[in-house]
Amino acid sequence: MNSYLIEHWLDITTTLLGLLYIYLEYRANILLWLVGIVMPALDICLYYSHGLYGDAAMAVYYTLAAIYGWLVWKFGRKHLQKKGQEMPVTHMPAHLYPATISFFLVAWLATWYVLAHYTNSTVPVLDGFTNALSFVGLWALARKYVEQWLFWILVDGVSCYLYIIKGIPFKASLYGLYVAIAIMGYYKWKAMARQHQTNLTGDRQH
After folding, report:
1. Which InterPro entries does the UniProt record give (predicted)?
2. Closest C-alpha to 66, from 139, 136, 10
3. How far apart are CA 161 and CA 150, in angstroms?
4. Strands (E), the chain
5. Which residue has the higher pLDDT, 7 or 108?
C-alpha cells in the first residue's frame, strides 16, 4: 500500500488540489486562481512522466493563465458593471463565437501537428483537442462567462478517457467527477447570470 501511495503521490496530490479548485470555481471564488497556480506546476511533472507532452506544456500555460485570471477577476470590468462591484457572471456575447471557434480550430490543428511530428505522443489528436479547447475554457473562465462550463464538460470528458488509457487512475477519477460538477456549475452560473440581469433591470426601473 505504501509503495502504491509513493508511486502515485503526485497524482493523488494534484487530484486533491483539483477538487479544491473546482469547488472554488463552482462558488465563483477568486481563491480558485491561487490553487490554479500551484496545481499545474505539479502537473507539469506528472504529465511529462506519462508521455502527455501536450498536457505538460498546457500546465505551464495554466500557471500563467491563473495569474491572468486573478488579475481580471480582481480588477476587470464588464459593460454596466458598477464601480466597486465584483465582476459579475454573464453569458458570452454572441459576437464572440465566430472568433472563438476559429481560434479553437487553428489551435487544435497546430497542437495536433506539433504533437504528431515533434513528440512521441500516442494520442496527438485527442491531446491536441483538449489543449486547444482548454485555451478557450480558461479565457471564458477569466471573463466569468457561463458558457465556460460547456467547454470544460468536453475537455474533462475527453481528458478522463485519456488518463484512463495512460494509467493515471486518480486523475481520471477526478476528471470524471469534473464532468458532473461542470454540469451543475453550468446551471448555478446560469442562475447567477439571470440574477445579475434581474438586478440590472430593477436598477433601470428605479
Report:
1. NMN_transpt_PnuC
2. 139
3. 18
4. none
5. 108
The whole-number pLDDT of residue 94 equals 95
CB atoms within 10 A of CB 69: 23
The span from the CA of 39 to the CA of 62, in Å, is 9
Residues ≥6 apart with Cβ < 8 Å to 114: 54
Using an 8 Å Cβ cutoff, are 181 and 173 in contact?
A: no
Give 56-81 pLDDT, tens digit per residue. Answer: 887 888 889 999 999 999 888 887 77
Which distant-in-sequence residues (6+ apart) come within 8 Å of 130 by Cβ?
54, 55, 58, 155, 158, 159, 162
**With DSSP H G I counted as helix, E B as strand and the rest as coil, what are the percentages for the chain, rounded to 5?**
80, 0, 20
Q: Three cell numbers at 180?
A: 458532473
User: What single-letter amino acid sits at 150?
Assistant: L
Under 8 Å between Cβ of 107 and 127: no
- d(Cα 69, Cα 40) in Å, to the nearest integer? 14
d(CA 159, CA 166): 10
